[in-house]
């Protein structure tokens, strides 16, 4: 894996180009351009706020700014995760002609997709900050949990993208499976509802354990902790870190092992 | 770079393809046929037991019937396929003229694509800026006129011209050419020939796959004749062509 990391690093200019191309192509033919990457999470946030905040009264929201901030801090990060997963899955199959004519470390293609979606997440941060001002959130040292969350999420997404993109070449069903898994994952992590609701529920103990072992749980708690300090839980973070790292290692080694077969199929 | 070492060296390489099975294996099939039908792993070796070395500056023509693994060989040298057996060492960067319009994004304009593809192949931004007019001019006035329209609207010939113009600028010591000269009109072909001769005169190493005897004898000094996935003749281009013609006539 270290040799793979070195190879990718030495081709970082290619990585940058792929990300650039990805973003230009994506926003070229739309009038609103990059604003779409903001409109989507904002509208989704509004919907969830209406359902869970207004209709269900926003139960068990941790002390801090209003529930809307909780949803937004989760949903912006989720947009990165979900778009990265779905687009990375087709990273190899969709760029087959480029991959079969250019000798670059093949890892750059899925990783490039993750980075492009990360760029959109970064572009959304000013909006998140603006929302924080409007919703009376405090800007404290707890904001430093965001870079940590980004780091863990990045590792997790790179691992997943390597895994999914290489599997998808050999088994096209992966694409459909990912779409389904995304919907499940969205509700299986504390993104739009507080973790306390799960912890205080009547679910059997093993379900709660499984829920907290999901690396996304720790990642999203970190995203929320920036605005809701009570959500910071170091043991949960540690569990998530181990999980993210494990996915990264497994993803990378699977990618390496499948690489010869993948190249033949492209 | 070591001058005395071969620039391309293959040792007993082989690559195996699986016939139709793994390809587009769908979950549905796995459910319907169970895991039992899976081991119909009919595999075949498009190339096997191939060993040869190419010295810097040599021009090698690869000859063989359709489906004998010539393009596969180029892909192995280009490093976009990994052999299942043996090892392949390439000492130097490779300029692949395999599929010329491969890196183009249809939504981007010709201008953007030149910069993108050029940099993907390792050309610096400043170099591309300097050479931009030359590249576009080489591609012909048809391309020149529509350089700021999306490549989607280009004809396939225009794409190939632009692709060739970019790759002709590469400084890589190894050129891999896969019948690209078969495309394009007469005028463009003449340009291609001139460029190839210039590049060869600069001392680049060439591996050319072609069915065109004229092209082969024109550029190549050495010939590899591949049949049945194995190297049959490794000699002068004439010897290889004779062996090939003998086989075709027989």
Please characterize this protein's 3D structure.
The complex is a heterodimer of chains A (266) and B (250). Helix content of chain A is 74%, strand content 0%. Chain A is mainly α and 266 residues long. Chain A is globular and about 55 Å long. With 250 residues, chain B is an alpha/beta fold. Helices cover 38% and strands 24% of the residues of chain B. Chain B has 9 helices and 9 strands. In chain B, strands 5-6-7-3-8-9 form a 6-stranded mixed β-sheet, sandwiched between helices. Chain B has a 3-stranded antiparallel β-sheet with strand order 2-1-4. Chain B is globular and about 50 Å long. Chain B starts with 7 loop residues before the first strand and ends with a helix. Chains A and B meet through helix 2, helix 5 and helix 12 of A and strand 1 and helix 3 of B.
Taking Cα atoms only, what radius of gyration of chain A do you get, to the nearest Å?
Answer: 19 Å
> Stretches of chain B where pLDDT falls below 50 for ≥5 residues?
none
Would you list the SSEs of chain A in sequence order as H and E? HHHHHHHHHHHH
Task: Using the alpha-carbon principal axes, give the shape of chain B.
Answer: globular
Q: What is the count of β-strands of chain A?
A: 0
Largest sheet of chain B: 6 strands, mixed
Q: Which strands sit side by side, in order, in the main sheet of chain B?
A: 5-6-7-3-8-9
Number of helices of chain A: 12
Please report which band the strand proportion of chain B falls in: under 5%, 5-15%, 15-25%, 25-35%, 35-45% or over 45%. Answer: 15-25%
């Amino acid at each position: 894996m270290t040799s793979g990391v070195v190879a990718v690093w030495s081709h970082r200019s290619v990585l940058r180009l792929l990300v650039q191309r990805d973003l230009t192509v994506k926003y070229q033919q739309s009038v609103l351009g990059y604003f779409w990457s903001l409109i989507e999470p904002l509208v989704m946030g509004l919907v969830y706020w209406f359902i869970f905040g207004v209709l269900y009264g926003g139960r068990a929201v941790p002390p801090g700014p209003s529930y809307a901030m909780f949803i937004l801090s989760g949903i912006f990060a989720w947009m990165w995760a979900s778009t990265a997963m779905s687009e990375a899955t087709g990273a190899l199959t969709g760029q087959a002609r480029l991959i079969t004519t250019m000798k670059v470390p093949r890892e750059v293609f899925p990783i490039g997709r993750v980075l492009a979606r990360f760029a959109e997440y970064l572009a959304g941060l000013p909006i998140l900050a603006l929302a924080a001002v409007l919703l009376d959130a405090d800007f404290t040292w707890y904001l430093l949990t965001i870079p940590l969350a980004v780091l863990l999420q990045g590792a997790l997404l790179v691992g997943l993208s390597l895994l999914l993109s290489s599997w998808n070449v050999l088994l096209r069903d992966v694409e459909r499976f990912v779409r389904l898994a995304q919907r499940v994952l969205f509700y299986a992590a504390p993104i739009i509802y507080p973790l306390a609701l799960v912890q205080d529920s009547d679910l059997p103990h093993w379900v709660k354990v499984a829920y907290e072992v999901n690396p996304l749980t720790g990642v999203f708690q970190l995203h929320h902790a920036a605005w809701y300090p009570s959500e910071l839980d170091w043991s949960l973070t540690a569990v998530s870190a181990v999980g993210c790292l494990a996915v990264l290692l497994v993803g990378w080694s699977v990618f390496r092992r499948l690489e010869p077969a993948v190249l033949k199929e492209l | 770079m070591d001058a005395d070492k071969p620039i391309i060296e293959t040792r007993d390489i082989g690559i195996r393809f699986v016939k139709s099975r793994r390809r587009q294996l769908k979950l549905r099939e796995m459910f319907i046929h169970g895991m039992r039908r899976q081991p119909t792993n009919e595999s075949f070796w498009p190339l096997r037991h191939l060993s040869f070395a190419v010295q810097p500056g040599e021009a090698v023509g690869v000859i063989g019937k359709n489906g004998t693994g010539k393009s596969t060989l180029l892909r192995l040298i280009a490093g976009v396929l990994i052999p299942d057996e043996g090892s392949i060492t390439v000492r130097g960067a490779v300029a692949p003229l395999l599929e010329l319009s491969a890196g183009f994004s249809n939504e981007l304009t010709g201008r953007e694509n030149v910069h993108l593809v050029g940099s993907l192949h390792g050309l610096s931004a400043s170099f591309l800026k300097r050479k931009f007019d030359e590249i576009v001019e080489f591609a012909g006035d048809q391309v020149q006129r529509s350089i700021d329209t999306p490549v989607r609207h280009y004809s396939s010939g225009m794409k190939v011209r632009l692709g060739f113009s970019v790759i002709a600028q590469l400084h890589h010591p190894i050129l891999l050419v896969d019948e690209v000269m078969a495309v394009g009109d007469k005028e463009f072909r003449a340009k291609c020939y001139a460029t190839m001769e210039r590049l060869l005169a600069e001392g680049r190493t060439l591996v050319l796959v072609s069915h065109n005897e004229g092209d082969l004898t024109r550029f190549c000094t050495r010939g590899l004749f591949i049949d049945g996935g194995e190297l049959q003749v490794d000699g002068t281009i004439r010897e290889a062509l004779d062996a090939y013609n003998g086989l075709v006539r027989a």
